[in-house]
Fold each of these.
Amino acid sequence: MPRRPLAMSVVSVLLLATAACGGGSGSSEKADTASDTKALAGVSVDGEVGTGLEVKLDKPVKTDGVKSEVLTTGDGDPVKANEVALLQLYIGNGTSGQKAVNTYDAGPPVQVTMSEGQLFQVLLDAVVGEPAGSRVAITAPASDVWGAQGAPQLKIGPDDTAVFVADIVSVPPTEVLDGPEGKQLEPPADAPTVIEKDGAVTGFDWSTAPEKAPQKLTVIPLIEGEGPPARAGSMVTFDYFGSVYGSKKPFDESYSREPAAFGVGVGGLIPAWDKSIPGLKRGSRVLIIAPPGEAYGDQPREGIPANSTLVFVVDVLGVS
């Protein structure tokens, strides 16, 4: 997968680091309704899922254990354990009334794997099984989340109450095609030719392509899909094949494995993908030629020299 190196924001790195040092597992007790209950006593939440989140804490917020409450129930596919999801997340100190983190401040959602060590256990207990589009709030003793040390980097002590609000923005699509489907399009005569075997992309024929790589991002539609379009800030499932321009061997591909699901437009992929994938319909196949500035620039990667132009075949097989 053409991920951008060091692509995660400071906020998302912080979330992963604090999750990894967590000590307690806690047991989550979900409220039956989204009305004002003990789970949200002293906590006011405004804004729509996916667009914004404002949380006001009337200090001190107190709780006698880990409690969670579904504030908004979405209509998407459910979050699954050990799979990725895109979340927007608020963390606050209910004792002091201060915000620690709100990922909406940074813009795009954070892609997180739903497993212990990647996310707080109290959040896993609350969001796994909930559908995309949902908003869940959690209050918990900080010691149940991070252990006896609390979370000093978030200015939350072990005796404080931790407040979380999680928006489930997107999960991997469940409707995934076996391969591209749609109208075949004629590429330009000087485009590299895609080589296939038994329906899988295996390489490029460069005989018709210019010796010098294009200097600008180039997207060449090969198959125009007829399904719903991919959206920035959502999960998309792909098959892909990537080579350095002019090379007969890939540096990475998915056709010999399972298709890959990843968030687009959230800063986790190289710029060429984040710019090219949104708007493509399910079933589409495109050829993406990414100059260094739209790929990895002067940073070498395994199989990719510094300042390389990269060429990808991308099949959009599922969109959420």
Note: Helices lie at 10-20, 121-127, 142-146, 271-276.
Amino acid sequence: MSTETILILGGSFAGMSAAHYALMHIIPQLPKKDGITYNVTVVNPSKDFYWRIAGPRVIASKELMPYNKLFYPIEPAFAYAKDKFTFVQGKATHVDSAGQTVSVESVSGEQKNIPYAALVIATGFSTPTPLFTQTTDRAALEATYDAFHTQLKHAKTVVIGGAGPVGVEAAGEISEFLNGKPGFMASAPKNPKAKVTVISAEKKMLPVLRESISKQAEKFLKRVGADVVYNTKVVSATKASEAEDAKTTVQLSDGKTIEADIYIDATGTRPNTNFLPKEWLDNRNRVSCNAKTLRVEAAGPRVYVVGDCGSYTRGGVMDQYDAIPVAMTNLRTDLVAHLSGQTPGPDRHYEANLKEQQLVPIGSSKGVGAANGMALPSVMVWGIKGRDYLIGMLVEGHMNGKTYEKEGKWKPQPVVAAGQLGTSRG
């Protein structure tokens, strides 16, 4: 008896989605052969899925966002297919594309090699601050939050480097928590407890959104006691000592410095790809792939990438609803051809949705954003995302796989001969 494994590296949004899709729409359609079984294996450093979307609220207070709304056990989500699903708590350390195996280090330090028939890279990203990244397990991240909450209670100055959605959301949540909700028609708190400053490297915040929406975000931030500094970068942030209450000196590109009780680095993300061969990566260390089929062509046959670590995407959870069906349909096409010896069928193609689209809550009652190129009123941003950071709307469907119960219609693309467009099939 042998087992053909669809191996998925990563158990966050993209990895979970890929696993459900594989179990629902790939395994049932693979050739039935005597002595061969099929399996979907997910490798992830934590046994719990982390709802990172809500990170900006939980860093302000676990009363506002309880920990039990952030973490969800991965294995029970696949109980419907437990005989075809395997979970490995650990992290990938090396990929042997020639031998089609991945080396994995378990949480106990044990090394094991996992063979694959098809490989999906969905390792996501890490953030400069540990506040928005789950690198090990739930207990470690909860401890990080607990320590931060202790500091925050006494903070008088908070500096946030970076004015993307996470930086802006964090500024709104922290400012409201420390300074209180704004009064009716008030432009700023009368007696703010803390001064919160957002450092934006550009002339506006929220790069994906238009300037008028960014300006509205600034107004909402000012109402809870947060200021924004534009066209300025954080050059360095140096903590005076290892003590939890030690101050941090933030050096800015304009020559000024700010002494902060708390500094939060929200300057971007770093793809979790350091275990992969350099020739698989682009100049931003993302996994380079065919932008239409999402195959990682440098990696040999039946290797795909989904999620924020891929070169094809500008990022975001919503983009994965377009990408997952593409990558996994093409995986199925290639795997069926490999197992049956037949010619691969037509490709499914990914089309990026580049319309202005982003929702940014600011505190517990305001927000800015756009959907499909249309600016949304604050109350709508609050209603969709600001109430609970999409937990009520998306968690259940994401965890149990119902989001991908139906494949959806798609128009087959003609098969391209290997080498014609650098396409690797097999």
Note: Residues 417-424 have pLDDT under 50 and may be disordered.
Amino acid sequence: MTSNRRTFAIISHPDAGKTTLTEKLLLQGGAIHLAGEVKARGDQRRARSDWMKIEQQRGISVTSSVMTFEREGVTFNLLDTPGHEDFSEDTYRTLTAVDSAIMVIDAAKGIEPQTRKLFEVCRLRSVPIITFVNKVDREGRPVFELLDEIADMLALDVSPQMYPVGMGGEFQGILDFASGEVVVPEGPSREFKGKRVADFDLPEEIAENVELAQIGYPEFDLEAYRNGDLTPVYFGSALKNFGVTELIEAIARIAPPPRAQPAGDKQIAPDHGEVSGFIFKVQANMDPNHRDRIAFMRQVSGTFKRGMKLIPSGLGKPIAIHSPILFFAQDREIADTAEAGDIIGIPNHGTLRVGDTLSEKNQLRFTGLPNFAPEILRRVQLKDPTKTKQLRKALDDLSEEGVIQVFYPEIGAQHIVGVVGQLQLDVLISRLSAEYKVEAALEASPFATARWLKGDAKLLDEFESFNRANLARDRDGDLVFMAKSPWDVNYQVEKNPELSFSATKER
């Protein structure tokens, strides 16, 4: 049954409350039983999706975690995306694996740059979006100002489904348009504990605004929402539990079931005859005790059964999948079966890589999971030269995950790592130390960016003989031009019109 699957991501600017909302959705689904882990002196709360050491230190999500939970007959697959602006590449790949998204906006800040960037990725793939305006129990901007900003900046129709009764110190609850009830705060912490009032006496100004909101904005239209043209807007406070129930019910009711996925010029629907899927993420060392390596597969079609053989496009020969994993917050269960829309983890030893298609007959290639040209390039300086082998293993692992890209220069021995954002370098150094016991430093590289080279073999050989000092191989052995500046790229493009200098590489 794929119609009861909802595979979605949560996107937001850092600090908009995405991690807290994730946690509350998991609580609603029974996947966790405690709201966070309170450290000494009320130190920073951590949600179950943030497990990596650097995340715990900085309070940000830097990997995309997967959490599955069930509620009232619906299976929810929640993909928690990195919120930090430096993680656009991992986030982009995660958004290829979902059918819808929740966009979390801070009521005081509105649309922020990272929110807009992530929204544009969703728009590229026509991913429908539900908007959740968070932190309405604090002082925030006027409701109409927020709604109009979403409509104007994102070029979307907005359809409010709720309305906050006051904000900040004057917060009295949230009116749910569908039920006509106001969910009201209770107790000294003014949380929502389930009390709903049907005959709430709205202040006159609020009553007028509610009427304006219902008349002045489009009614909800399912087709427009699923086409990515309209966003229903919910208001709430993830921290105080307002609006979370309405949000999860909306995902169950209106978010699309598994959608067809592009494979070249075909669209592969969930009812396609064979089991198929694609790897959108690889994660090493989720459990440091076991040095494990999990490939995350978005199942596109068919009914997967434990033990069946699938052929990875990067390998060409079948592998038996004996221990497929479903993720329930930080807990794991062996999956006996899985359906289209599910995310399953496949333990492996470097066999599976980001972008691989898995299928029964090896006649499909899912498209749209590119590598991006790095914007920052650094040389890796090993502090203990005896650990060269461990460093190579670590860099291979991390490049397979998509955290970094590794380039091996044609001349010179030092590895060059490429990333799309500065924070990935911090993650690299942190993980080398914590997971591989390799102490390393990064130093400036003479190169500013890289381009993948393609073209006639003879022309490539000629280009290589003249430009060996500026060439490297990526971990697939593909030829890469290492450029000292954008001018350098443009000069070579003009000089070698028969060759392709590509900023992306499809796998």
Note: Residues 290 and 314 are 25 Å apart (CA to CA).
